[in-house]
Every structure is written in structure tokens, then in C-alpha cells.
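Exercise 7b. C-alpha cells:
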């Protein structure tokens, strides 16, 4: 049944194994690779306006590059990018014309346009597809082949062409659109579950069609939190889904454009046998993982994860998937490039890629901020990432902070920690995203409820933290003040500076509010409808703009009412 699909996946296995061998080699000599890459980038771009300004042609070493070229941020390139995109000017910051402009989320101000050249695309393809498939084949062997792929990546934005003729939009659109002509051979879900028209319940379509397919081989998502959303949806709506599968219909309660409903319903057939299988599984309850019972051929999950987001991954594995299904946690990447890849399954740490970008690092909270190369990194320290890429960014501050956890051969292993612009600091206490997440997770564990998600708002007017929590499975005897007090104490333990400011009266006691059920799912749906890329819908640990503030505080509920809804 899946011969063509498996033939496609077997094609190039030897090439991917050679790529893994090449990666093994360059991780043993990373600085030689880094030096060669930097000199190649400078030579390729020496005749650009930016290259002439900083004398790229005269630079022959890393040290000379660091002396001549300043550390930069996006605003240093905005003018050049505007001239490129709107006037069609070339050779400004990069010798190669972009093949795409990546659209950032745009929740604050004007969305950025991140240039994306063919070399950047090739590097992404080499490591996000080639290395990934080779690594998975090496680790799961023949289980790598099998049925279709369950895609949980959603695309909610139109692609436009800028005046220079280059496409502009979320990169997730660019990665999935090439598969449209063979979609039904690869994925069990209809195209509209991914490229969702307005007023389309994509969660229903994804779950309903996926449940019909017994032979799903793997799950692909941007972040493992989306697998958790998917599993929770099935748990809460399995009766509707099974009934529709049994009858071969789409319930009238499901929101769909009428034309799409008619077309999909015309193709559906009753499947009482599969419905009976599913009903028997779900009626057993959800005390043990149901996913391996529903899809017995499911071998692995691919998705972004980091130690800071372990809440989502842990619940997915413990409650829904179990531990026999392999997890490939993608490394660290952004619109500017792909930075790292895993070297072990189910590991939050990943190895930097020596031939992807030229890297520098600024030690977190250090003064003065002096960038160093990867050979100067120390285990246990945190560093802000600074990159030079194939798309015209030089010594560019990513504002991502990484923890060095060890070395793979001679190349640093890193974990993503937090973004500098997402740190909460009312009185200089600098509470990071990681600290906020850990405090919320510990509080949930201590108080005995399930934490769906949480966000913190720095209330500058009242000089206090406000925490929004969406919770489930709440013990009947639990009191609101118990939760608030436990959260406050956990914040103090994790960030002693916060505790000092609290005890001195510089920061007022924390305020806790509770979100209505499915608030965080609704937020993701809203952002997709606004044209944002699902790849950029990271957990909202820090409420950082007016849109987020209005949304989350509008959907709150009294604690006792939440307990009634979410009681065990």
C-alpha cells in the first residue's frame, strides 16, 4: 500500500549516511571548519555595499573580522532589506539574491523580513531533512519505513510576492507546499487540515482523518506541545470523532465552509469496523497511553523541544504516547539559519553545526559584552548567540541564550534557555523564561493538579507579577491561596533576587488568575488566523504585548468554577 512512499524514503539512504559521517568529521575539527566558512562568506560578499563598507576583501582571520565588523541587530539591516524588497536593489548585504523572505510573527510593530538565500535553504535541507532522516534510520532501523506521516504543522498565512518578485511569508509554508501534488500519498489528513481556509475546524479534520488510518508511521510537528494539544483534543472529543467515523459523516456541529463540507462528505464512507476498534480503546479510559493502541505502527515523533518546555513533552510521553515510541527533538533553528542538531534520541541537548553558520557567543549578563568563538566556551555557562550567515547578517545578535552542557567530539553541546527580550525584570531581578516555567511546573506538582499552560505578566503599574494559569484535574480540597503561595515560594527559590525584592517591599506579592478551559489552544488558533506561522507560536511564558494582555486577561474564570470544571 505504501510502496511508493517507502521507495521515496529509501532513496538516498546511503547519501544521508555519508552526511552523518561528514558531520562526525567536522565536529572533531570545528574551528578549522568555522574559519574556512567565515572566509568563504567574506569572499562571497566582499563586493556588496556592506562588504565594501567594512573591508571584507582585506579580512584574513577571525580576529581581524572581529576588529573590523561591529556586532549588529535587525535595525542595522532594515534599510538595506527595504531597498532590496521594494526597489529590487542587489549586492547590498549579500552577493546572492534572496529566494524567500521569512515573515516573523509581527505581534508587535511591523513584521520583519528575514532574507533567505539558496545557500541558507540548502543548509536547512541538509540538516533538517537529510541529517534528520539519516539519524532516524540509523537509530530506528526498518521502523523508519512504514505508513503515512501525521503532519501537525499548520499553515495559516498567504504568501505574497514583494515588489522585487521574491515570495514573503512564514517558512513553514515554503517547506510544505512542495508536497501538495502528492499530499494524499504522504499524509492521511486532507490538505485543508494544514492549509486551513477561514472558519475551518482544523483540529477536528486532523483528528478524524488520522484516526481512520491504522498505519500511521510517524508524527511531525513544530513543537511537541502541539502533539499534546492533539492528544488532549482526542481525549475530550472521542465520542464525536468515533460516531462520525462510524457513520461516514462530518457532524453539523463542526465548523467548515459549506463548499468544503460538501466535497469532503462526498468522499467519506462509513467505517463501523474502525469505529468499533477505537470505541473499545477509548472506553478503557485514559489512565494508560492510548496512542500506541490506536496506531500500532507509530515508530517515532519529530518535533522541537527544549529542557524548558519539558512540561509538554513529559505529559505527552507519560499520559498519551508511552516510552516505546522514539522521540527526535529537533535542534535549534530560526529564520536566520539552522544552528544545531541532536546526537541522541530524546535529548534536549544538541550539537552546534560547524559548517552551517559562523558562531560567536556573549557570556550572559557579562560586562563588557565581548563575543568569543566556540572553542572558548565553558561547560555550565550561558551565552547569547551571535551569528554570521549565508543571507547577509554579520555578527548578528540572536537574543537567544544557550546553556553549554558538554561537547560532542570537540563541538559544544547546547540547550536553549531563554530569549533576552522575554526576561521579566521589574526591579532588576531578571527572572528568565526558564525560571518562570520551572516555578509553575513545580507548583503544579506540589499542589497535585495538571498544568495545561501558564503565562506571566510584569504589572509595572502595581509592581508585581501576575500569573495566568490554565489547569485541569484539580483536587477538590485545593485552595486558591495554596496555589498562589506555592508559586510565590517557588519563584523565590529559583530566583533569590526576586525573593529579596519581595521581602523588602520593592515588589508586591504575586497575583494569580485562572484561564478558562482551552484558552491557550484558542490563542494559537487566533494567531494562525492572523497570518502567523505555527513555527513561531512558542509558548507565551511572558505576556509581552498588548494583544496578549487583552486576550489572556479577557478569558479568566473564578478558581472555584475552574475546580468544578476541571475536578478529578
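Sequence design result:
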Amino acid at each position: 500500500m505504501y510502496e511508493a512512499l517507502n521507495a521515496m524514503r529509501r532513496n538516498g539512504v546511503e547519501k544521508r549516511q555519508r552526511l552523518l559521517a561528514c558531520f562526525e568529521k567536522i565536529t572533531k575539527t570545528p574551528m578549522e571548519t568555522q574559519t574556512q566558512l567565515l572566509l568563504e562568506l567574506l569572499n562571497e560578499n566582499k563586493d556588496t555595499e556592506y562588504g565594501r563598507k567594512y573591508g571584507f576583501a582585506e579580512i584574513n582571520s577571525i580576529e581581524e573580522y572581529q576588529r573590523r565588523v561591529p556586532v549588529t541587530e535587525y535595525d542595522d539591516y532594515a534599510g538595506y532589506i527595504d531597498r532590496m524588497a521594494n526597489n529590487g536593489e542587489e549586492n547590498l548585504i549579500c552577493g546572492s539574491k534572496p529566494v524567500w523572505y521569512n515573515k516573523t510573527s509581527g505581534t508587535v510593530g511591523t513584521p520583519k523580513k528575514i532574507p533567505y538565500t539558496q545557500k541558507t535553504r540548502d543548509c536547512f535541507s541538509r540538516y533538517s531533512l537529510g541529517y534528520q532522516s539519516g539519524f532516524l534510520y540509523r537509530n530506528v532501523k526498518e521502523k523508519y519505513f512504514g505508513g503515512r506521516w501525521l503532519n501537525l504543522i499548520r499553515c495559516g498565512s498567504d504568501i505574497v510576492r514583494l515588489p522585487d518578485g521574491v515570495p514573503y511569508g512564514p517558512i513553514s509554508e515554503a517547506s510544505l507546499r512542495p508536497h501538495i501534488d502528492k499530499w494524499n500519498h504522504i499524509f492521511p489528513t486532507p490538505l485543508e487540515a494544514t492549509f486551513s481556509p477561514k472558519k475551518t475546524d482544523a483540529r477536528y479534520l486532523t483528528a478524524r482523518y488520522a484516526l481512520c488510518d491504522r498505519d500511521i508511521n510517524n508524527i511531525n510537528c513544530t513543537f511537541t506541545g502541539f502533539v499534546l494539544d492533539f492528544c488532549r483534543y482526542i481525549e475530550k472529543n472521542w465520542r464525536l470523532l468515533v460516531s462520525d467515523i462510524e457513520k461516514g459523516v462530518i457532524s453539523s456541529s463542526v465548523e467548515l465552509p459549506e463548499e468544503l463540507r460538501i466535497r469532503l462528505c462526498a468522499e467519506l464512507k462509513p467505517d463501523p469496523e474502525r469505529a468499533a476498534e477505537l470505541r473499545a480503546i477509548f472506553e478503557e479510559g485514559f489512565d494508560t497511553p492510548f496512542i500506541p493502541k490506536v496506531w500500532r505502527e507509530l515508530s517515532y515523533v519529530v518535533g522541537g523541544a527544549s529542557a524548558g518546555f519539558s512540561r509538554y513533552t513529559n505529559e505527552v510521553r507519560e499520559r498519551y504516547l508511552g516510552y516505546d515510541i522514539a522521540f527526535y527533538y529537533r535542534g535549534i533553528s530560526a529564520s536566520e539559519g539552522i544552528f544545531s542538531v541532536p546526537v541522541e534520541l530524546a535529548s534536549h541537548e544538541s550539537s552546534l553545526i560547524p559548517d552551517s553558520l559562523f558562531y560567536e557567543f556573549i557570556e550572559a549578563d557579562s560586562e563588557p559584552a565581548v563575543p568569543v568563538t566556540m572553542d572558548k566556551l565553558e561547560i555550565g555557562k550561558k551565552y547569547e548567540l551571535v551569528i554570521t550567515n549565508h543571507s547577509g547578517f554579520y555578527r548578528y545578535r540572536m537574543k537567544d541564550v544557550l546553556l553549554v552542557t558538554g561537547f560532542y567530539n570537540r563541538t559544544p553541546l547546547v540547550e536553549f534557555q531563554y530569549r533576552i527580550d522575554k526576561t521579566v525584570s521589574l526591579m532588576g531581578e531578571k527572572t528568565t523564561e526558564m525560571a518562570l516555567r520551572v516555578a509553575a511546573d513545580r507548583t503544579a506538582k506540589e499542589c497535585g493538579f495538571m498544568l495545561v499552560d501558564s503565562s506571566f505578566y510584569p504589572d509595572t503599574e502595581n509592581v508585581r507579577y501576575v500569573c495566568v494559569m490554565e489547569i485541569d484535574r484539580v483536587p477538590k480540597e485545593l485552595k486558591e491561596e495554596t496555589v498562589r503561595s506555592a508559586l510565590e515560594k517557588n519563584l523565590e527559590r529559583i530566583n533569590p533576587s526576586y525573593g529579596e525584592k519581595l521581602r523588602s517591599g520593592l515588589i508586591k506579592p504575586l497575583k494569580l488568575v485562572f484561564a478558562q478551559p482551552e484558552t491557550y489552544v484558542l490563542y494559537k488558533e487566533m494567531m494562525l488566523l492572523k497570518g502567523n506561522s505555527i513555527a513561531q507560536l512558542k509558548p507565551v511564558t511572558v505576556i509581552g504585548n498588548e494583544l496578549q494582555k487583552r486576550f489572556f486577561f479577557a478569558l479568566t474564570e473564578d478558581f472555584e468554577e475552574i475546580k468544578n470544571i476541571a475536578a478529578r
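Instructor comment: The chain has a mean pLDDT of 91. Residues 224-247 form the longest helix (24 residues).
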